[in-house]
Automatic annotation (TrEMBL), chains A, B:
Belongs to the acetylglutamate kinase family. ArgB subfamily. Its EC number is 2.7.2.8. Residues 5-244 form the Aspartate/glutamate/uridylate kinase domain. The lineage of its organism: Bacteria, Pseudomonadati, Bacteroidota, Cytophagia, Cytophagales. It is found in: Cytoplasm. Substrate binds at residues 40-41, 62, 160. This is Acetylglutamate kinase.
Amino acid sequence: MQELNIIKIGGNILDNPTQLHRFLSDFASVSGAKILVHGGGKIASSIGQRLGITPKMVEGRRITDAETLELVTMVYGGLINKQVVAQLQALGCNAIGMTGADGNAIYAQKRPVREVDYGYAGDVAGSKNINAATIQGLLSLDLTPVFAPLTHDGDGSMLNTNADTIASVLATALAPHYEVKLFYCFEKMGVLQDAEDDNSVIPEINKTLYKELKDTGVVSLGMIPKLDNAFAALEQGVRAVQIGDAAAVSRMAAGGKAGTLITL
Amino acid sequence: MQELNIIKIGGNILDNPTQLHRFLSDFASVSGAKILVHGGGKIASSIGQRLGITPKMVEGRRITDAETLELVTMVYGGLINKQVVAQLQALGCNAIGMTGADGNAIYAQKRPVREVDYGYAGDVAGSKNINAATIQGLLSLDLTPVFAPLTHDGDGSMLNTNADTIASVLATALAPHYEVKLFYCFEKMGVLQDAEDDNSVIPEINKTLYKELKDTGVVSLGMIPKLDNAFAALEQGVRAVQIGDAAAVSRMAAGGKAGTLITL
């Protein structure tokens, strides 16, 4: 089976033009089929502020009301996505910007209102909501899909969706067709034993160790959904999941060790 | 040869949600290969105003300084483009949002500074700057490309490009591969003999008549680039060019008469 690298970058890289350019240059040099998934970044909040849109957060999650949906559709799907695509084109990578609406690539459900109304937040039920054929078609044209963290509801509305989730469901849906490696890039060198010590990267985490780390509070609240997504992906046939910083991408893609390897 | 309908809509339709929905529903029902090209609309100016960006115009053209480029990249490439794509998906049309950067579809040159510095405005030198193979690839996947009025310079920057020009160069570049029909939708029923009389649609304009209409001042300043683009497209192999209102699209696509037919 052909290899497919799916790489997710977060806001910290997007917010720093120099780091972003260095990362994109590493990404462009990754050979073979690849997909980039990007998050949001502070720019959405700062543009929102200038527009008079106050960020609404509950338990670290953005509440996506109608005006926030417009904001993230503009900033994630337009500004960030197209700037990344244009830069990748300049680096010789034939990128194509995508959201879940484009080619009906990722269909999501508006999160049901329970205690909290998350507004236009989209939950992806699983790989059945990914249009794998379209993505395979794009890859077969030697295009590199670049996904913004947006999906659609099939009824004409965009939805705000977590970028980690998008990376994970893409990996799962494409696992039957490619040997998928999934990389989560974030601001740390990997999952740390000691949050204060950048040199305390845990080289490998399996399910047993993950339970221990959660029980002892070593992994933080922000890390848990990332790791949950990683295990979910592995359980559904993804070959490898790695977590590390952006600089590790070229090493990881070349098969070298970097960051934390997640295994079942 | 397979037929390909390329339809361009302007700001007036985009600014009116009811009209837009009606148009998209007509567009979705057009059978066979098709491409939608959309313009900007007032929403860019109104969001720009809220962001404190003052529109800068010279001779009816927007001057695209750095902050205006960010604005149009967000609004045209994000907000408008994705809303149109999501609505088309809901109507059963497998749309994929595009700018010139995506798949390197349309490469442009930053307009040289002469008397006026237009900033990040992109001029497309001709059909050689269109990556026809990528667009054919997307069409062969039964996707419907939806183009925002943006291109890129190949050096990592997006550029603001007139939507009429984009429609026209796409038509020209694809003319060797498809029987291309190009429709320009705007607020009038067609090119009018008398600007005050909506019933004075000129059914057909050829080059001779066009010269007369220009000499006698019948065609307005805003109409001239549209007609120039139309003739340029016909001279390069486009089968038919028609200009009319959005409601005419379903009639025109079905082969009926509507609006003004431009011929050589």
